[in-house]
Amino acid sequence: MQYVSTRGQAPKIGFEEAMLTGLATDGGLYVPETWPQLSQEEIAGLAGLSYEEVAFRVMKPFIGEAFTDAELKGIIERAYSGFRHVARVPIVQIGPNDWLLELFHGPTLAFKDVAMQLIGQLFEASLARSGRNVTIVGATSGDTGSAAIEAFRGRKGVEVFILYPDGRVSDVQRRQMTTPDDANVHALAIDGDFDDAQARLKDMFNDHTFRDSVGLAGVNSINWARVLAQAVYYFTAAVALGAPGRKVSFTVPTGNFGDIFAGYVAKSMGLPIDRLVIATNQNDILHRTLETGAHTCETVQPSVSPSMDIQISSNFERLLFELYDREGTAVVQLMDDLKWAGGFELSQGALERLKFGFSSARASEEQTLATIRATLEQTEEVVCPHTAVGIHGARVVERDPTVPMVVLATAHPAKFPDAVEQACGIRPELPRHMADLFDRPERITRVANDLEAIKAIVAGEAVA
Ligand SMILES: *Cc1c(COP(=O)(O)O)cnc(C)c1O
Hints:
The chain is of the alpha/beta class. The protein has helices at 15-21, 40-44, 51-63, 69-80, 112-130, 143-152, 171-178, 194-206, 208-214, 224-240, 258-268, 285-292, 316-323, 328-341, 348-357, 365-379, 385-396, 417-424, 451-461, and strands at residues 2-5, 13-14, 30-32, 91-95, 98-102, 134-139, 158-165, 185-190, 216-217, 248-253, 273-280, 294-296, 343-345, 358-362, 405-409, 445-447. The chain has a domain at 91-110 and 224-424: Rossmann fold. β6, α6 (143-152) and β7 form a beta-alpha-beta unit. It starts with a strand and ends with a helix. The mean pLDDT is 95. The site of pyridoxal-5'-phosphate has 16 residues, from α11. Pyridoxal-5'-phosphate binds at residues 110, 112, 143, 221, 253-259, 307-308, 386, 410-411.
C-alpha cells in the first residue's frame, strides 16, 4: 500500500515511512492511495475473534509487506498486553439501543493508548531493523502526551519531547507526563494553549533542515498509523452488535478529528456504519461547519473536557481531501485560507457530502455536567466529561431508533476527577496500578511559545 499527501505535492511513500515521518513534506497528511475493502463475509468472520486477531485482519491490508504476518501479530500482541480488560475495548449498554465503547483500559486511562501502544511497538520493530534513531516531538492537550510517554519510555533509539499547554491539563494528565523518570522522555510546559503547541510542532516539521538533523518523527493524531489503529474498534463494536447484518451508528467526542476519521476509514472499508456523529464541547468549530458550511476559527474556550479544547482540527484535512474528490490543489487552497484568513467556506457539493455521512451536536458546559449526573442516575456508570459530551450528542441528534448507537467512551473518569465530582458529587478513584501517582516526583521544563527556544531544547538532547 502506498500513501499520498492530502496536498498532492509530496512523493508517494510506503506505510513504514508514513508512520515514521507523520507530516508530509508539502505540509499535508498521508492517506492511503485507495481504501482496501473487507467483504461482508470477511466482516462477518470477525465475530467472536480476539481484539488482537481483528486488529491484524483490519490493519494488514494497509501495512502490506512492511512487516511479515508473524512480526505484525507479535507487535499487536505486545501492544495490547498492558490493557487491563481481557476484551481490550469492552462495550457496555446504557440505554435501550445505546452503548458505550470503553476505550480507557490502557496504561494512561484514555483511548490514545489504543493507538500509541501499537505505535510504540511498530517504531521499535522498525528502528531495530534499520539501526536508525528518531526524535519524537508531540503536542498534546493532555492525553496524547501521557500515552506517548508511556508507549516510548525507555525504548532504544527514541528521544521523546512532549509540548503541553502549561496550566491547561488536569493534574492526573500532567503527572502522567512528568513523573516517568526514564532519561529519554521530556515533558515541556509551553506558555500558550494547545493550538500554540500544535503550531510550533508543525513549524518544526516544516523546517526541513532541523527535521533531518534531529531525525524528527511525529506521533500526533495526524500520524496515519494512529488513525489506522483506531479503525479497529469500530469493527469489534459493530460486529458485536450485529454487523454486517445490521447497521450501527457511532457518536465520537471530537477535537482533532482523528478518532472519528478512523470511523470514516472503517466505513470506507465496507463496515455498515449508518451515522458518524461529531460531538463537540463549546469549542464547536466542527459543529458550526456542519450547520453553516463555514469552517472558521474562534479563540479556544477552556472547558471541563479539555482534551477537546481545540479550534484547529488537524485531521479534518483528511476528510476535506475526500470531500473534494482527492484534489490536492483544492485542499492547499482551503488550508491557505484557514491559515491566512482564519477560515473557509465549504463548496455546496462538499457540504452535502459531509452531511451525507456525518451529523453533529454540541454540548455546553452545563449540558456536559448534567449528562454526567443523569448517566449516573440512569445507569450507575460514572463517565468522564468527554464521554458525557458524546452521550449528550447521541441523545439530541436525529437518528433511526432501530440502529444501535455506540458512544466512544474516551477516558476513564478518574482522569478528570474535579469535573466529575463537580457534576455528580463522586470523586472517581484511580485504578490500583496508578494509586501512587500523586506521590511520585515530577520533572517539568517550562518553555516560551517560541520556536527557536523549543528547537534549542530538542536539539540539545537529541541523539540522531
Ligand atoms: C484526544 C481526546 C479526544 C479527542 O480525540 P480526537 O481524535 O482529537 O478527536 C476526546 N476525548 C479524550 C479523552 C481525548 O483524550
